[in-house]
Request: fold
Amino acid sequence: MTTPYIEQEIQEQPAVLSMVLRAVRPAIEDFIEPGMQQRLHLVGCGDMFFAADVVSWFARLHLHLDVRSWRGMDLRWMASELGPEDLVVCASVSGRTPRVIEAARAARRAGARVLGITDNEGSPFSKEVDRAVLLQTSPPSALSAGPYPGYHHPVGQTKTYTAVLLAELVAAARAAGDDALDLEAVPARVAASLPGLSRLVAAGAPEWLAGRENVLVLGSGPHLGTALYGAAKFLEYAVRAQAQCLEEVNHLEIFVADELTLAVILAPDGPSLSRAEELPEPWENLGVRSLVVGPAASHPAGRADRLPLEPEAPHVAPFVQAAALQLIAYRGAVALGRDPNAWLGGVRTDLLIETSRRTVRGSRILS
Reply:
């Protein structure tokens, strides 16, 4: 049996991350002055925004940078506040995302320095940045030929997300002048984690998803971007899913949660765990199935299923968590009868693909 594209992409991530450090890191560090006392802005749409949000939280908490994450469109409201003291890092893998192109253009016109991260050299996006850094995760020809803009294979993005995550982490560390951050640990730890995670998820996903129609991925603070990413992976296989702040879930989804719901709870640290411990028993009384993703020694009591993760350094943990969610979405989709080699994108696939083509490839870019 041929290995599904999605599994290939998941397993390729350590090699791609090593390539980012080897080939992409020098270009980023050449562009950014070390230890700059400037504001840093990370900009993207979809997966690229989720990566930006994760890195911005890490950079604020651990690198003490003045940094914010923005969706491409949102930077329009900030453009008048930008100037030479701002460094803007925009990511568009396809090089054709209109709102990110628009954000890069606005930032440059305001006088900010703009670094672009892309797979598409010579794209409209690469012409709107001061320096374009090429990820090399997908050939540009594949980006235009696939059923959905920006995808190498017709499956949900995996290695592209983690490559951008690492590239933006490199940018943040350089901006902070932090030479001690052990970035080489990232691909090594992902490689070490994947075999065990793959086995556990392959064994558990059919039971976790049995009879479920809705998935909630819950995370807060530094983990909300990862939760948003995880929900997007389910959606790409036509599994109804959404992400929610762990703090707010009992104010919102509890009104509609039932026996058709799987709640995937990211609880890798103390603050997250303190909230996660409040959820499984009352939710399971409603019929919700809870899957807690976190360190092996830090799971709440009760009836929750568990996917143990080894404790990781703060700059490594988002990559391992992302791999876990990729595997859960992939194996869960297979358990629900989805084709792992088909990008489904919801229950109205043809309509969504055509709408995406019009939006991503044909949208008018504001000048």
The CA atoms of residues 14 and 191 lie 5 Å apart. The chain has a mean pLDDT of 86. The two ends are 50 Å apart (CA to CA).
